[in-house]
């Protein structure tokens, strides 16, 4: 009988250095080398050390695989096991969990959140009515200084790429507001932008494209308060207390909940199984971060007798992060840069509410692919 020989990895292969580039929120880059057994937490720590940040839990490292599917780098797994792209690796440092009350952040993290929100506006993730869009645009422009009629021609806003679809009407309104912000320093303009942006319904929403049960395009997202679906200028919103379970099987994603004492099962279809799994993981992590009291029970599963699924572990929850932040004793760093009863079913149509037209318009599926490249 022939014996099989299993070859263990050589010390040389384990020590082989792999080059990584991480794009920061201001589009600058930092680089480092890792080994094959280096875990994702090392890269997050590397970036947070660059910023001198202690409150790391709001942030994550995101990457895009060769099929243009976005992923969050899992901190407890080796980087090499997660990356499907060829070396050297390129990733992005992004806000993963948006502070529910950004004005109460313990450390001086507001500038990083401000940079993330600027990206969200430009890439069409932060949607808002026309008046709100103009105000946010004026806050961003004010970062560079007061309006000066001798330096700013009538069309100077055209040089600022603030929104993916920037109309002349919007530019004129931004100019009007900018003229009235004389004497406002950049730091105050940033705080004003955060204060207004965090009240918007799509604050912190990362839209996942899918199809509903009719085959119509929809965008699913998660916030600190619940689960939201956007279709044109209509939306479905469920509070976290109304959502009892998130499940997936193949390309099908299920939201199971209760509203108005009726059982609710919303079904959506993603383009690939990988996109469906990513959607589920984002939903479970979001619910855990904002709602759970402790991260001691970390392993979550989507499997049961009726559904195939997956398992993964999540990190600290918001309650733990806030408690840890309150104990920080140092000068802030400077920014560089289910019920078991049976209920009648409730359809999608019963939940739909009309909204004011949003700026920019909800992205098409093709535009979402461009957003994925931004990561």
From TrEMBL:
> How is the protein disposed in the membrane?
Single-pass membrane protein
The biological processes this protein is annotated with in GO are: actomyosin structure organization
Q: Which GO terms describe its cellular component?
A: cytoskeleton; membrane
Pfam families xref list: FA, FERM_C, FERM_M, FERM_N
Keywords assigned by UniProt, alphabetized: Membrane, Transmembrane, Transmembrane helix
Q: Mind telling me which InterPro entries this protein's record contains?
A: Band_41_domain, Ez/rad/moesin-like, FA, FERM/acyl-CoA-bd_prot_sf, FERM_2, FERM_central, FERM_CS, FERM_domain
Q: Which CDD domains match?
A: FERM_B-lobe, FERM_F1_FRMD3
SUPFAM superfamilies (alphabetical):
PH domain-like (SSF50729), Second domain of FERM (SSF47031), Ubiquitin-like (SSF54236)
Q: Where in the cell is it found?
A: Membrane
Where's the FERM domain? 18-294
Q: In which domain of life is the source organism classified?
A: Eukaryota
Annotated GO molecular function terms are: cytoskeletal protein binding
**PANTHER family the UniProt entry points to:** 4.1 G PROTEIN, FERM DOMAIN-CONTAINING PROTEIN 3
Protein name listed in UniProt: FERM domain-containing protein 3
Q: What is the organism of origin for this protein?
A: Amphilophus citrinellus (Midas cichlid)
Q: Recall the taxonomic lineage recorded for the source organism.
A: Eukaryota, Metazoa, Chordata, Craniata, Vertebrata
